[in-house]
Design brief:
- By secondary structure, this protein is mainly alpha-helical.
- It starts with 9 loop residues before the first helix and ends with a helix.
- A two-stranded antiparallel sheet has the order 1-2.
- The chain has helices spanning about 10-20, 25-35, 40-70, 70-85, 90-125, 135-140, 145-165, 165-190, 195-205, 215-225, 235-240, 250-275, 285-300, 300-335, 340-360, 375-405, 405-415, 420-455, and strands spanning about 370, 375.
- It has 18 helices and 2 strands.
- The chain is about 80% helix and about 0% strand.
- The chain has one domain: Sodium/glucose cotransporter.
- Bound molecules: phenylalanine.
- The site of phenylalanine (PHE) has 14 residues, from helix 1, helix 2, helix 10 and helix 14.
Length: about 450
């Protein structure tokens, strides 16, 4: 990663920020959350929340980084000191959350690695080795395999960060992303021509508000923050690398726009296949893995296509993981000066590995652990993303609001060459002062009510 303020091109920022935002959250998590929340109405809610709440908060986090040139723990401590109040713990919580999410993200990245290798095998060993339903079932029942794959992923991420080659790697990965875009476009086109498409379009884009539950608002917000990498300190770090002349609101809004568009592409790509297969539970975290591999093998040249697709998906997951680990390590080193970087990276990897045991063994050893009607991995996902993440995001926001003067906010937002920045400023100010906190509070409250009163 670049040293502070050392990017020579604006492109550098976009590579990192979009690379961190676009990942498994869009392709793996979004489809099943949409399934869980009943389709069209939830998508509408998500898109609205992403642009109206997510983007302004993303802009605020970038500003914290750009104005302080520090990572999230030190930056939030400084802001709280200036204001005399604020949540100086919010930075620490963001980093703890990052390492927990890093471990759980590693398990899902391990699933991607599994299918990538399966496609590689089926390419050489022929159709009898074809990826079929049994692959997912055997992966799910084999917790140790999941843990092994997660540790391979963690090892790769740690080695990249220890060797300090992530900047080169990120550029290399991003130059492969156009290939990924082409593969996704082909798949989108193919799956769109399936007979189930009209039914899917109705499900995805005809908003039936009766399908929303009391928890849907919280689920939409949690997912927005997760997919935009808001509330983890990642965007604070990236903001601290921005150049003085970069306009934060433009950058933040563009990142949010690209990320939201990718999520929409993902559902339109995956649901026609899921509907075609008819017996796939749309609410299952394994939805994408249940649906795509089988479909890919049913098309001509599917093994090669599948290999390329899962390899690109893996690189996107690796890119996002590097961002998560970077944040943990840089904050650790910033907060404890005597900690050496390499050691902090290995320790973080080991902590993540220990934490990964729970989600990895969720469908085997811990199969009987069910909270409500959810498995361990689903409960963990919900706790982290729907509950803790919005709280931490709110903590960072309040710290920013209290520790930054009106003048500073205005100066960071308004660019005299951009007329729209004058017109957008009052809206942004309204969202960060009122809209954001109220909606997050409401989302959490409705989730509590849902938890307490629905069976
Ligand atoms: N935004 C990433 C995704 O959608 C996940 C992530 C969160 C990455 C936080 C880095 C930091 O997959």
């Amino acid at each position: 990663m670049a040293k502070r303020g050392s990017w020579r091109t604006r492109f550098g920022f976009y590579i990192l920020a979009i690379g961190s935002a676009c990942g498994l959250g869009n392709l793996w998590r979004f489809p099943y959350v949409v399934g869980e929340n009943g389709g069209g109405a939830f998508i509408l809610l998500y898109v609205f929340m992403s642009l109206a709440i997510g983007a302004p908060l993303l802009i605020a986090e970038l500003m914290i980084g750009k104005n302080s040139r520090k990572s999230v723990i030190v930056a939030t401590q400084q802001l709280s000191q200036r204001a005399g109040t604020g949540f100086k713990w919010s930075g620490r919580f963001a980093v703890i959350l990052s390492i927990v999410v890093f471990s759980y993200y590693a398990v899902i990245s391990g699933w991607v690695l599994h299918f990538m290798t399966q496609f590689l095998v089926s390419l050489f060993a022929g159709p009898e080795m074809a990826v079929d339903k049994t692959n997912l079932a055997s992966l799910m029942s084999n917790g140790w395999l999941q843990l092994l794959l997660a540790s391979v992923h963690l090892l790769i991420t740690v080695v990249v960060v220890v060797k300090g080659v992530q900047e080169g790697l990120e550029r290399w990965i991003s130059s492969l992303m156009p290939l990924f875009a082409v593969l996704v476009a082909i798949l989108l086109f193919r799956s769109f021509s399936l007979p189930s498409t009209p039914e899917v379009l109705r499900f995805l884009f005809y908003p039936d508000f009766s399908k929303l539950t009391l928890s849907s608002l919280g689920h939409a917000l949690g997912h927005v923050f997760f997919t935009l990498s808001v509330g983890f300190g990642t965007m604070v770090t990236f903001g601290s690398y921005m150049r003085e002349s970069d306009h934060v609101p433009t950058a933040g809004f563009r990142v949010a726009l690209v990320d939201t568009a990718l999520s929409l592409v993902a559902v339109v790509m995956i649901f026609p296949v899921a509907f075609q297969a008819s017996n796939v539970p749309l609410t299952d975290p394994a939805l994408m893995f249940e649906v795509l591999p089988r479909y890919l093998l049913s098309i001509r040249g599917g093994a090669l296509f599948g290999l390329a697709f899962f390899a690109c998906l893996y690189l996107a997951a690796l890119n996002a993981s590097i961002g998560l680990l970077e944040v943990v390590v840089s904050n650790w080193v910033d907060a404890r000066k005597q900690m050496e970087r390499g050691r902090a990276t290995w320790y973080s990897g080991l902590i993540a590995l220990a934490l990964a045991i729970f989600p990895a063994l969720s469908s085997s050893l811990f199969k009987t652990v069910r909270i409500g009607n959810r498995s361990l991995i689903e409960s963990l996902d919900s706790l982290l993303i729907n509950w803790i993440l919005p709280v931490v995001t709110l903590g960072i926001l309040v710290t920013f609001l209290r520790g930054t003067s009106e003048k500073e906010k205005e100066a960071s937002f308004i660019d005299k060459d951009k007329f729209v920045s004058y017109t957008m400023y009052p809206h942004w100010k309204f969202i960060i002062w009122w809209g954001g906190p109220i909606v997050i509070g409401l989302g959490l409250l409705l989730q509590v009510i849902d938890l307490l009163f629905s069976k």
